[in-house]
Amino acid sequence: MKVEVETPEDYMGDIMGDLNRRRGLVQGMEDLPGGTKQIRAEVPLAEMFGYATQMRSMSQGRATYSMEFQKYVEIPKSVAAEIISKYNSKDDDE
What we know:
alpha+beta; Alpha-Beta Plaits; 4-stranded antiparallel sheet; 3 helices; 38% helix
């Protein structure tokens, strides 16, 4: 997903750290009027669930974001292995 976050400069580090934890790749940053920064990143959709709540919490409700589909990308092998093992363990339970 193409993600754009507008945040006051005070919360930039927290927002960037959270995007990185969500396997995001920061594409760029831009200064906006009023001491606001815009962060552009690519983040997998699967990692964006719950982001709005987390972002509001980190920025005390002062950051906003938008996202739109950008492209399909193959998931890393480590993530695929985790998904497969969860699926296989559900089969064992049934």
